[in-house]
Amino acid sequence: MKTLIFNGSPRKNGDTVAMIRALRESLPGEVKVIDAYRANIRPCVDCRRCWTQVGCVIDDEMQQIYRDIAEADCIVIASPVYFSCLTGPLLSLMSRLQVLYTARRFHRVRLIEKAKVGAILLAGGGDGSPARAEDTAQGLLRCMRATHMETVVTHKTDTLPAAEDAELLAAVRELGEKLAAAHE
Ligand SMILES: Cc1cc2nc3c(=O)[nH]c(=O)nc-3n(C[C@H](O)[C@H](O)[C@H](O)COP(=O)(O)O)c2cc1C
After folding, report:
1. What are phi and psi of 16, to 5 degrees?
2. Buried b / exposed e along 4-33 (16+ C-beta atoms within 10 A)
3. Is 78's C-beta closer than 6 angstroms to any atom of ligand 1?
4. pLDDT tens-digit map of 2-44
5. 3 partner at 20 to 30 Å CA-CA among 28, 119, 131, 140?
6. Contact 64, 34 (CB under 8 A)
7. Which atom number of ligand 1 is nearest to the Cα of residue 17?
8. What torsion do the CA atoms of 140, 144, 148, 150 make, to the nearest 10 degrees?
9. What mean pLDDT comes out for the span 163-184?
10. Distance from the Cα of residue 151 to its chain's centroid
11. Fold of 2-183
12. 123 phi and psi, to 5 degrees?
């Protein structure tokens, strides 16, 4: 089982990373984490070359990620909630998924053959609602042909950091087991 996790947090030991660590404890197989704040990936600039040719012309680390997405059995989007959205760098990276849409729309080509399971992990301090962030993450999972299985969310990290939230971490570990079972 190959799992690709997109991490939208800038914090190396933050709440999102605590949830990702818990997930990794129960996820079998290969796990690759893409760190949106540290990856060398440019945003989509809507140059529209993908309207006339299949694929993205920007030659950077995203080319490998397209291959990783195609091969993955499971995709997880993990992010802090910023102003009720996913974080900017995560959305910037994800903007490069537009090429998956244009391949289908203009070339009738499906770049992602393998269907996958998907999940979402969200961390919010307790202010703006995570609902919109979840909605966006669900759309991104669909774009990568991942069927959303479950979202685990904490909305109280201002008072209870994810790393100290036993109930949350148990729910995340359980999610890992469900994703593994769905793959079998
Ligand atoms: C710029 C910014 C915007 C934020 N907006 C929200 C928000 O809308 N809702 C919320 O619940 N928390 C919000 N937070 C709090 C973070 O989501 C929260 O601290 C989260 O646990 C951080 O996760 P991390 O440690 O994985 O980076 C915001 C934090 C920052 C820095």
Report:
1. -65, -45
2. bbbbbbeeeebbbbbbbebbeeebeeebee
3. no
4. 999 999 999 999 999 999 999 999 999 999 999 999 999 999 9
5. 131
6. no
7. 26
8. -70
9. 96
10. 11
11. Rossmann fold (3.40.50)
12. -125, 125
Q: Are strands 116-123 and 30-35 parallel, antiparallel or unpaired?
A: unpaired
What residue type is 31 in one-letter code?
V
Q: Does the beta carbon of 88 lie inside 6 Å of ligand 1?
A: no
Residue 51 exposed, middle or buried by CB count within 10 Å (0-12, 13-18, 19+): exposed
CA distances from 183 to 55, 98, 170 (A): 28, 27, 20
- The H or E element spanning position 150 is strand 146-154
Q: What is the pLDDT of residues 103-127, one digit of tens each?
A: 999 999 999 999 999 999 999 999 9
CA–CA separation, 128 and 75 (whole Å): 25
